[in-house]
């Protein structure tokens, strides 16, 4: 089992010292808090908030996954240079059907710094 990095596991002191490192490797989930049953929901996953991630041949974001609890819902793979070999905020929009309330988590793989997990995002599904 690979080691999973989560910002919540790091002390506040370490977060401040290495803010750019944690920011560029942490996936963030953006989506509506509530959706009607059966509707597709747009879920944006973005890498980093303030700092851009490199896109080098040996250091890039290779995979972003979207999980609902223990179920892998969807994923995308990138190749080195997919973003023109320029640092960027890697982003992807997933569209998934919401039939039950979800606890979404994003996972991302940096080829140099391993597997990173977002904070959980709860999405409530209503009947009407």
Automatic annotation (TrEMBL):
Pfam family, one: Desulfoferrodox
Stretches assigned to the Desulfoferrodoxin ferrous iron-binding domain: 22-118
Transport in keyword set: yes
InterPro entries in the record: Desulfoferrodoxin_Fe-bd_dom, Desulfoferrodoxin_Fe-bd_dom_sf, Desulfoferrodoxin_SOR
Chain segments annotated as coiled-coil in the UniProt record: none
Keywords, comma-separated and alphabetical: Electron transport, Iron, Metal-binding, Transport
Molecular function as annotated in GO: iron ion binding; oxidoreductase activity
Family that this chain belongs to: Belongs to the desulfoferrodoxin family.
Name the record gives this protein: Superoxide reductase
């Amino acid at each position: 089992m690979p080691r999973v990095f989560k910002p919540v596991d790091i002390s506040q002191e370490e977060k401040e010292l290495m803010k750019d490192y944690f920011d560029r490797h942490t996936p963030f989930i953006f989506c509506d808090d509530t959706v009607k049953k059966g509707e597709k929901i747009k879920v944006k996953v973005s890498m980093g908030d303030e700092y851009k991630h490199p896109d080098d041949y040996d250091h890039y974001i290779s995979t972003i996954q979207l999980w609902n609890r223990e179920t892998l819902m969807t994923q995308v793979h990138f190749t080195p240079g997919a973003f023109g070999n320029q640092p960027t905020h890697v982003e992807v929009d997933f569209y998934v059907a919401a039939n039950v309330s979800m606890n979404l988590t994003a996972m991302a793989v940096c080829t140099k710094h391993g597997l990173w997990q977002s904070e959980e995002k709860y999405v409530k599904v209503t009947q009407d």
